[in-house]
């Protein structure tokens, strides 16, 4: 980064020059020598040896006051320049320490800066490839807190789609709580940024968050980004209402309640936390009902040849609602899983119908859906 300009020392005062005396007598000459430490203080401070310049300047001031030597201005200038250099160095050090206060889906492990730009310099809309390769389970601390920012039109690992501050808490709330908050809020932000992210096939959401050490040092920012579980993105996932025709927008909007609920899926299965899984199943039941209603309303604005497939999806969604409600009331894990199996029995049929409708309204067809329909991708 560019550093602020150093305070420039005023040029040392020159001893007065005297012409020939107006009357006979000796010429005036300096009565005492200039302090060598004062000269050295200014010189070494200007060549970036600030600690040494500071020491020499202090010694010069002491000697000047005791011995009557000259050069106080030089000593003061050397101390001033050294002080500025040391302050700038300290500020740079504090900035560098910020790289070590973040973690990636892990409570431990500092983020160390390396070559490239810091991930914390990335902004919403930036496409990038992180310096740390993701592990197979998408867990682990960042070994390298840098990233290469790339054009979204060339292959890139991920795209920043939002960020937020964790506020309202003094002490570190714990890794699990921070991760839960980060996951929930990042999920909501994705749908505002990428209204049709399903067009890119399967996507994985990720986030960088402050660990305990980072929290103690003031870290509160969470960065949300998305990428494919394997491989790179080839284009930006960013889309808003202005990028769609009315029929397209109405169709993809109908799926939003369902996508929002899916993004809230608990991280633990019903065998470990049945209560949380049951609450989520209730959310899914309500989401399927709302998606069916919205799609039924949007169906009239779709081209005639895809209204039939849209109606079939409405029927499938409505049929799934009671099974999700059963899962929400399940007394044990077996009953929960049995209900979910029934609720999702027509998922593959829905994928094929969705691909047909998307092609009919001019929306991109996800790679996995095209493959299911036997099309080349």
TrEMBL record:
Pfam families noted in UniProt: DUF4190 (PF13828), Septum_form (PF13845)
UniProt keyword tRNA-binding present: no
Transmembrane segments: 37-62, 74-97
Record region (Disordered): 1-24
UniProt signal peptide: none
Domain DUF4190 residues, every copy: 38-91
Alphabetical UniProt keywords: Membrane, Transmembrane, Transmembrane helix
All copies of domain Septum formation-related, residue ranges: 140-226
Protein name (Swiss-Prot/TrEMBL): DUF4190 domain-containing protein
Species name: Streptomyces yanii
